[in-house]
Write the structure tokens for this entry.
Amino acid sequence: MNGLRKLSDNDFFKLKEFIESKLGINISDKKRAMLESRLQHRLRKLNLGSFNDYINFTFKKDRSGMEIGHLIDAVTTNKTEFFREPRHFEFLSKSALPLLMNTYSIGIDRPTRIWSSGCSTGEETYSLAILLNEFAEKHSGYKFTVIGTDVSEASLQTAKTAVYPMSSIDMLPFHIKKKYFLKSKDHTKNLIRVKNTLRSRVSFKLLNLKNPNYSLPFKMDIVFFRNVMIYFSRETQKEVLSRLSRFINSGGYLFIGHAEAIINMDLPFKRAGLNIYRYFKEETGIE
């Protein structure tokens, strides 16, 4: 079955309603062409003749629920890179980690807990693990754990496999490349893989930020929640940030993207830097 299928007004509304209610991602009319384009592959793969057929299959006939996963993968944006927005990593290593260690003995009495929320294919998560490991080597007995979560199963599979184009680490210092990455034995592929010594320090989990229960094993000291809010409505932004705050220890840090802001939302965060906030709750200490 060849040719492009057209997305009708009614079908667009049904998909839009599901995506916004399930994921919190705001699908405006401007994104209609994007949605139509990204789902063409799924229609061809399933040999379906129209978007109406696709909707009926996805929401009524597919008892496995797997196609909803493919739909989520199609509409979530997976742009990321190693050490993106480097000033955040500099602040983390020079300010946040030393303060938490020296004030609360975090990293010494128990591991520093870092959450890469909306981790996509894992580059941010491994960047955090590299930075934490470098910090730990300079401070005897320092411990840490890094968790990456995302709503896309396909992205998480890439993160767990940890295989990336060699060009993705071009900007990293040579000693970091040598220490934490392996080149593919097949030099024609130009691929690298994160070494197992670092992969073993990181865990990944499927998590939809729109769900009321995150099922995380503990509260976090640092949360990277960057370039995720821009896809949410303001109402969903406040809802998710309020929920996130319940998983941050008092005194912990929240990092958001350069195009994002927390303004007039009546949330328990205080500005600590450019797109960096601290969470404080008087009656709750570090856990």
Summary: The first strand starts at residue 112 and ends at 117. The chain has a mean pLDDT of 91. The first helix runs from residue 9 to 23.
